[in-house]
Amino acid sequence: MSAALPPLSARYAGRRVLVTGARGFLGRAVCDRLTAEGAEVWAPSRAALDLLDRAATKAALAEARPEIVVHCAVDGGGLGWMAAHPIESGLHNTLMNAHIIEAAEACGATRFIGAGSACAYPRLCPVPFTEDHLWDGYPEPTNGPYAQSKRTLIDLCAAYWAQRRFFAVTPLLANLYGPGDHLDPGRAHVVSALLQRVVSLPPEAPLTVWGSGRPTREFIYIDDAVEGLLRCADLDEPTTINIGTGEEHSIAALAEAVCAAADHRGGITFDPTKPDGQPRKCLSAEKAATLLGWRAQVGLAEGLRRTVAWYRAARAA
Ligand code: GDP
């Protein structure tokens, strides 16, 4: 955490906080951090709180009356999963997002923070992406319906603020990685996919990487993402805001960094039959630095080292 910032406990200690998606990668890390900051965390399973059910969601929140809602639940995955599931990624996420923000406002919560995604930006956008370009064009079509569900949530946050003065914000997160990431290869994003592959390769075998290696992405370490997300409750008023690092890496460079972190010397091969997706993706970190005084702290090499150690331990367990 940045030295000059107040502790997160100033906002969250003693508060009843609902975390949706609490069994997922981001949600679990949010719960851990909130618990460490002294919050009273309500982390219902999907069975206990079905966000696809509008009436049940409203009733559950009306009964539990959380003061702050941190919405991390998604039906999502990496590029391959998104391309194969445009219905689930569009329909489910649109419904869940609409139901949870409605229920949060109706139950009297004072803050709603929804986890957004850099994929909500236009497919072709000046890099680094600044918040004023969000609505300039349609997102990458392979994750279009998912991205549109995030855009709807962003729009609803603005609507709730404009009409009811309900503090609702959906920060746009860079691609997450780190310990605790999903191990399901069918849904994996690139870092998780490459790390899982590299730790199980024989020493001389090359690491296979999808596509051309030329697309760029930005990767935020999970602890940084959690902190940036939670700090958005301290904005003076809701606004579109990126939570990223501002550091752009090609997929080829990422693959090399993954091999270095895992000490793998078998080289890299590219599989051009697999899709590249969006050509470039990298968020500007400047608005968050200005409004929140916050910047990500963990660089890619260090974050990958920590994550490799976790993958090796998870594999051995
Ligand atoms: P995206 O940011 O929504 O495109 O999410 P991903 O993390 O799934 O993909 C990011 C980039 O990594 C794309 O250009 C992929 O082609 C590339 N990539 C390379 N190897 C892999 C892999 O094994 N799995 C995934 N999901 N992406 C890969």
The profile of the biggest β sheet is: 5 strands, parallel
According to DSSP, the number of beta strands is 14
Distinct small molecules: guanosine-5'-diphosphate
* SSE class: alpha/beta
Rg from C-alpha positions?
19 Å
**Total DSSP helices:** 11
Which term fits the overall shape? globular
The helix fraction, in percent, is: 40-55%
Alpha carbon gap, first and last residue: 31 Å
Features:
317 residues, alpha/beta, Rossmann fold, five-stranded parallel beta sheet, three-stranded parallel beta sheet, 11 helices, 13% strand, globular, binds guanosine-5'-diphosphate
Please describe what this structure looks like.
By secondary structure, this protein is an alpha/beta fold. The chain has a domain at 13-177 and 219-247 and 282-297: 3-Layer(aba) Sandwich (Rossmann fold). Helices cover 41% and strands 13% of the residues. The strands form five sheets. The protein has a five-stranded parallel sheet, with helices on both faces. α2 (25-36) packs across α8 (222-231) and α9 (251-262) packs across α11 (300-316). The mean pLDDT is 96. It binds guanosine-5'-diphosphate (GDP). Residues 78-80, 119, 143, 175, 188-190, 193-194, 209-211, 215, 217, 251, 274-278, 281 line the site of guanosine-5'-diphosphate (GDP). The site of guanosine-5'-diphosphate has 23 residues, from α4, α7 and β9.
